[in-house]
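Reference record:
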Amino acid sequence: MRPSISLAWKPIAAISIILLLSNLWRPAATLAVLDPAPILLVVNDSAANKFGRYLGEILRAEGLNEFEVVTLSAMTLTELNKHDLTILAETTLSAGEATTLNNYVNGGGRLIAMRPDSQIKALFDLGASAGALTDGYLKIDNTATINGTAPGSGLSIQTLQIHGDTDRYSTLAGAITVAQLYSDASTVTAYPAVVSDDTGRAVAFTYDLAKNVVYTRQANPANADVDTDGDAVLRTIDLFQLSGGGSWVDRDRIPVPQADEQQRLFARLVKQMVAQAKPIPQLWYFPGTAKTMLIITADAHAQPESYYQSEIDSLNAHGGKATFYMSTGGGILSEVIMETWRTQGHEFGMHPYRNPTITMTYAALNQGFTDSVNQFGLFYDPPIPMSLTVRNHQISWQGWTDAADIAVAHGMVMDTNFYHWGQWLKKPDNTWPHGYITGSGQPMKFIKADGTILNYYQQLTQLVDEQLFDVYNLPGFDSEQLTAAQAIAVSEQLIDASQAGDYAALMTQFHLDYYGFTSVKAWAESTMDYANTNNVPIW
């Protein structure tokens, strides 16, 4: 039986959940089973698009860890032929490089290319170009088969967003359109978004999957350090808002994990193509056979011990284990009681404030982290280890990934600041979507604009008490003001959808401040009960 582990923990437990959730964990003895690796990822770090190496993170998130990476300059026909499948990141090609790839595929090799150079378009049965479309959509064809198998079977049939450019190509006879390009959410084009040749040995994404996943998860880089909603706080949600009231993420698609669906299609194509040569192992997303996980977090703001005890008693009675993020100033707990709670499965981390709070700068956020680390070390650590995960007060953020740099510099490994909250979520018809503002229910690493991948995982917080309930009076923001029964229905809907195929780690926010509210407590307890009833692990 697997032990329950909370989100924030002793270093070994912290590393374990990160690796398990992101499909990086496996026994050391299996590391060299396949040599050479069946998959070769070819990247060009000098390309205009710096996200090529993120395809490796997508492979890892999808449990396909048996791959090697080479740079385009080191690509040779001999190297390509050592592997069962080559994945080519978006890049321009020299005439010689194009010839090598053409010879490779024509000689029996298998290739998946991201937004391929026109010199190799014929490999994918692509014809004339009609230019590029910016920020379109795609629709997966659930019935399109390649060698008798439909890679899109069971995936979302809704149109999904593409952030970035997609090349519009006509298709030649024999081409198999796996996903169709749309100019907007409802207008189909004549061009493919994902296409295979008739043999199933060459597949093209006519957009760059890596860039789209990054931009979907991390939102709009142009909004870095922009207080989009004008509330005098730089937050993660500012990255998702557009001037004039628009939204970076299509609010009608928030219930769909758009990034996850697209990378799952990619993973299926990878498996299917490698399987033409040999079986390939794929690690499952979560421990055992779990399709969903519930991850409980609770922000705390200098509340007394009695508040903690009340919430912990409730959590314990319903099989819940939480990570409490503790702010600086007041509410200091005794080591004895904290250790008692830790033996029950709960953990404690920091909830940094900017310092000074009114200054929206890198230095202020960094100082807030320093203050929080120092206070935790002064009062608790040792013997109480600080969680290696973090949520900032006010979900404050800096730059596009500067806040992630700050967290890494202070030893953090997982971020919970991307948060389903805010007036921007309200649709024109006055309804509120629930689900995945980042398009994902999976923890994956951040990547910087220069292509540097940070050892710091982003995990969306989907179920937020202050979004669902009328718990405080903030100027300019009206919460959804749900009843307990309505909020419980939201939790159940997300769990049901995950169990049916979304496969998500669902993170909650059970503020210590609000857990005493009757409706909030009823929602929290029923959410845990529903998870337990459906065999959803609560970590």
